[in-house]
Design a protein that fits this description.
six-stranded parallel β-sheet, about 45% helix, alpha/beta
């Protein structure tokens, strides 16, 4: 039986991996192994390891590596702790292949460790671009370490090949977030109100703002501008927590203060996949700089006000309204999303560039059919 090790560090990434993990778990020819690390083990971010357990997955190792620090060196030290524990876990589990998704530092360390230990790496969501974040360098570094590539669109497949990766290693399987939406039975509006204990009787703003890691000095002003812009609308503000990157504490503190001062504002550590996607279904606009706005929102024809440079370079559907960090541009973007009839009408005919929602089926087929041998491990450049 072929052992497939999945490493996950955040709630968002776990949500994207869920159906592939489930399909691996159900397959008679594959064995799912699971390492949980990063934000999943931090109480301030919802301690989402409990969500994974409730979903019925057996966790083989929990790697607690987060150092609470306001210095940039805190993340680097956390990465060092993770590397030591990851190597020990790999020695114990002896996986045949590792599956990872995305571009965060927890995943970069998992890839580094697997590469050194000659464990084949399958990487989802490579070939993308987020020019305003350190994730950009992380993602491309992981691509060069990986042996199998699962990009989420044909354009990203072509980019990976242009990076010198051999074409036979690269499979366009679509974005996993599309499958989440198609396979989950979402909550209706009444159920959602009961679960969240809020009335969804106003225009609904879903807001997720992550630190822009290449511009951390201006995070405070960026968040202030965002909060001032949304305050000009009579709406229900639903905030979700940012990633645990340097600068996230500034964002959290400002949002908490805003929520305390506004009865129509709410903040959630962890909505969970079903509640989050159900909210997207009923929301009027999504605001911030989350990859969810790029990937998952198009399924719901949901307008997205994408702020700043964090998602710069990503392939975007027609529902995205890009703005700078200024209050006036954010306000104008929201106004267009809500009241520009031509813009909203065009969303009805929008084709999604991110696939048909069969990601897990394609990935598992490849895991079962690909040869794990010297050819797979020994990479070479092609141009």
């Amino acid at each position: 039986m072929r052992k497939i090790l999945v490493v996950t560090g955040t709630r968002a990434e776990y949500g994207l991996l869920y159906w592939t993990m489930e399909r691996i778990n159900e397959d008679n020819e594959l064995e799912l192994q699971l390492i949980v690390t990063g934000n999943h083990l931090v109480s301030e971010y919802g301690y989402t390891v409990e969500t994974i357990k409730k979903d019925g997955f057996k966790i083989d190792e929990e790697i607690d590596m987060m150092i609470n620090s306001n210095k940039k060196s805190g993340i680097a030290k956390s990465m060092g702790l993770e590397l030591i524990q990851m190597a020990q876990a790999f020695d114990k589990l002896k996986p045949d292949l590792m599956l990872i998704l995305g571009d965060r530092y927890e995943i970069f360390i998992a890839a580094t460790c697997a590469m050194i230990m000659n464990i084949p790496i399958a990487h989802m969501n490579g070939g993308e671009s987020t020019e305003g974040a350190i994730d950009e360098q992380m993602r491309h570094a992981i691509t060069k370490m990986a042996h199998i590539h699962f990009p989420g669109a044909e354009y990203y497949k072509e980019r990976i090949i242009k990076m010198g990766e051999e074409p036979w290693r690269v499979f366009n399987v679509g974005q996993a977030g599309i499958e989440n939406i198609k396979r989950l039975k979402l909550l209706n509006k009444k159920q959602l109100e009961e679960e969240l204990d809020i009335n969804l009787d106003k225009k609904i703003f879903i807001i997720t703002y992550h630190p822009v890691t290449l511009d951390v000095e201006n995070i405070g002003q960026q968040v202030d501008n965002l909060l001032k812009a949304i305050s000009r609308f009579d709406a229900l503000y639903i905030f979700t927590y940012p990633n645990a990157d340097f600068g996230s504490e500034i964002i959290i503190n400002k949002i908490k203060k805003f929520v305390k001062e506004n009865s129509n504002a709410n903040i959630f550590y962890n909505l969970g996949q079903k509640r989050y996607l159900s909210l997207l279904k009923y929301a009027d606009v999504m605001i911030g700089n989350s990859s969810s706005g790029i990937i998952e929102s198009p399924i719901f024809k949901l307008p997205v006000v994408n702020i700043g440079d964090r998602q710069k370079g990503r392939l975007k559907n027609k529902n995205i309204i890009d703005t700078t960090y200024s209050e006036s541009e954010i306000y104008s973007g929201i106004y267009k999303a809500l009241y520009d009839k031509k813009f909203r009408d065009n969303l009805e005919y929008m084709e999604n560039v991110y696939g048909d929602g069969t990601t897990s089926k394609q990935v598992v087929h490849i895991f079962k059919s690909i040869d794990i041998n010297k050819k797979l491990i020994s990479k070479k450049l092609t141009y």
